Amino acid sequence: MTDYIVFGSKRIDFELTFANRKSLGITVTPDLDVRVKAPDGTPIIDIKERLRKRAPWIIRQQSFFLSFHPKNPPRKFVSGETHLFLGRPYRLKIIDSEIEEVKISGKFIEVFTFEKSRAEALLCEWYLQNAKKKFHSIAAPLIKRFKKYEVEPSSIILRNMPTRWGSCTPRGKIILNPELIKAPKGCIEYVIVHELCHLVHPNHTQKFVDLQTREFRDWEKWKGRLERLLA
């Protein structure tokens, strides 16, 4: 069943299930959903009271996960439009050409194409190819550093994710959103370190935060930069 509580001016919706367990558990998912598991027979009034007490933590968790939600506004892929690459803004220039290619020239990303309607596909493929090269080179020294914790990702793959910058599977596969190629190197390092920390501590416990701070002291700075730049 679903229900909600009101905390200040904020409404917190939650999904409630009952189970044969002794204590009430509250989980916030990366998609910002709040899931509650309660012992069989627990009065709803008691569940809501517990949620109100945990509301500040729930809101903090949702804000934390929200930083991983890509928020780029839609683009039209026309000349003069601004596009980012590794944190720097470039003006898009569509150029008529029989040979199709994309390259950076000064302050411009030039898209050569025989048909303007193909500009989006060509630019997206260019971003993807650059992401494949850059992400692996950025990740390599970070992965090496984490070997002291006896962890190493089984692989790093790229996948478009509408609500996340990165994720880590139970089998140790790190998934990165290719949209990150639009952010500065520090933002990319932050996301990679965050996922590497999950290989050591799967959940966002204090030990996880302590490890992230130890291995990437400026993570809050780059987290904020990612939120502002790609908002």
UniProtKB/TrEMBL annotation:
InterPro entries membership: UTP_pyrophosphatase-like, YgjP-like_metallopeptidase
Pfam families named in the record: YgjP-like
Entry's Gene Ontology molecular function annotations: metallopeptidase activity
Highest taxon of the lineage: Bacteria
Keyword Magnesium: no
Matches recorded under CDD domains: M48_yhfN_like
Keywords in alphabetical order: Hydrolase, Metalloprotease, Protease
YgjP-like metallopeptidase domain boundaries: 22-228
Record-given protein name: SprT family zinc-dependent metalloprotease
